[in-house]
Amino acid sequence: MVVLVAVAAALPLFLSFAILKPKTKEISFTGSEQENTAMATEIYGVKIERNPPESRLAELGVRAWSTWEGHPSKFPWEFKATETMYLLDGKVKVYVDGHDESFDIGAGDLVVFPKGMKVTWDITEAVKKHYSLEK
């Protein structure tokens, strides 16, 4: 009886957390070398690798990618191709169409947005990023 009361009391708290928290899952990005394996998070189909090692960035050729800069602003965006980006500076709050919650990306993040994804970018600190579009 005491166990049932405790479970019943904790259930609303658990459900509110489970419902409001963005869906995330751990995924693995693997490079050509075993030591380049890094854990990443996937949120609403967006893959985020926080602070990947320099060896991972070199393997991808990130420093040779094009760059883009944006000042604090808020705007809608649709990814016409899969885009991989590495943020050098700044912070962005990302709202994915069809989801109520947002998530943050910022300096040091390697992020992959899939082709066709529609988002709203809320740049809260000026951004500078390297980016590569899938061909």
TrEMBL record:
Protein name in the entry: (S)-ureidoglycine aminohydrolase cupin domain-containing protein
Domain of life: Eukaryota
Gene3D superfamilies hit by this protein: Jelly Rolls
Keyword Ribosomal protein: no
All copies of domain (S)-ureidoglycine aminohydrolase cupin, residue ranges: 58-131
Record keywords: Signal
InterPro entries given in the database record: RmlC-like_jellyroll, RmlC_Cupin_sf, UGlyAH_Cupin_dom
Signal peptide: 1-18
Species of origin: Morella rubra
A Pfam cross-reference name: Cupin_3
PANTHER family per record: OS04G0445200 PROTEIN (PTHR33271), RMLC-LIKE JELLY ROLL PROTEIN-RELATED (PTHR33271:SF1)
